[in-house]
Specification:
Helix content is 39%, strand content 22%. It is an alpha/beta fold and 313 residues long. β8 and β9 form a beta hairpin.
């Protein structure tokens, strides 16, 4: 059986690498300082493997075939977008198969990848938490862009089943496992839904057909994303962020799920769908999060939060 050490939940943002602060007093400084502190704690815990739950931002998954849940079981490679780590990443294959089997038995239909590409939405938090070490990972990608969005209730159930699976995994699949949830708080982004008549045709083509040449589509998109950075007036709903963090701090996720997709977008923007990764992570460890840092950083186009709960000393 595996032992769940606990959970680290944290925001990701392209601008954590593109617009790093000069010091702790600058926007994002407290967030990065807290991330470094937590990585030292994780180093002392010395997990044998990590399960990393994160989204994709149209670098690997497109609307030619978009899965709600996807697991990598053999090879994983970082796309290298926005300064995140490119190239091969270590995969805990035996544990990944155990997770796949357990979640399938629990009634969840995951898409399966023997060769998975992951972008900054997963890699950035993995790097921050693991501090550059190659701790084997189980990569779990959750669609947070547009339909097929798994409902928030479904994500909570998925997390509970994930926790049960990790605790029940045997045959030496893993020893001490840390769960990492990589999401975002409130932020407003252009629509990712191909049904939206306001979506520009070139963008619509890229979210559907981007697999044809993912590097070329990313190269065309990155300058537009970079141009969004540095705006101190970007929309961040810090009041909602704090409410959300309070709910996770009490272990009460039902009021969050009760918002539904429409209520969530109204309060937290289309980027707020990324909270699904944190709902999954908390449900897996079944413990309230201890929120150690929150910083509204509109310059990074998101409110930044870090929470951690560890089940063993």
């Amino acid at each position: 059986m595996s032992e769940i050490l606990g959970l680290v939940a944290m925001s990701h943002s392209p601008f954590a690498t593109l617009l790093p602060p000069d010091g702790p007093e600058q926007p994002g400084g407290r967030f990065l300082a807290e991330a470094a502190r937590l990585s030292r704690t994780v180093a002392r815990l010395a997990p044998d493997a990590v399960v990393v739950i994160g989204p994709d931002h149209f670098h690997a998954n497109f609307y030619d075939a978009m899965p709600p849940f996807l697991i990598g079981v053999e090879h994983a490679v970082g796309f290298g977008d926005f300064g995140s780590r490119p190239g091969p990443l270590p995969v805990a294959g035996e544990l990944a198969w155990s997770v796949y089997d357990g979640l399938t038995r629990a009634g969840f239909d995951l898409s399966l990848s023997y060769s998975l590409t992951v972008d900054h939405g997963l890699v950035q938090s993995y790097e921050m938490v693991c501090a550059g070490t190659d701790i084997p990972m189980v990569p779990l990608v959750v669609n947070t862009a547009a339909p097929p969005l798994p409902t928030m209730e479904r994500c909570i159930g998925f997390g509970r089943a994930l926790g049960d699976t990790l605790r029940d995994s045997g045959n030496g699949a893993a020893g001490r496992v840390l769960v990492i949830a990589s999401g975002g708080l409130s932020h407003w982004l252009p629509s990712n839904d191909p049904r939206d008549p306001a979506m520009a045709e070139d963008r619509r083509h890229s979210v559907i057909h981007g697999r044809e040449d993912a590097q070329a589509f990313a190269a065309a998109r990155e300058p537009r994303v970079r141009a969004m950075g540095g705006d101190p007036h970007a929309h961040v709903n810090s009041a909602w962020d704090r409410w959300f963090l309070k709910q996770l701090g009490t272990g009460e996720s039902e009021p969050i799920a009760a918002l539904g997709d429409g209520g969530l977008e109204e309060q937290a923007g289309s980027g707020g769908h990324e909270i699904r990764t944190w709902l999954i992570g908390q449900a897996a460890v079944r413990a309230p999060l201890v929120w150690t840092s929150y910083e509204p950083v509109p310059e990074w186009i998101t409110g930044m939060g870090i929470g951690a709960t560890f089940e063993v000393p």
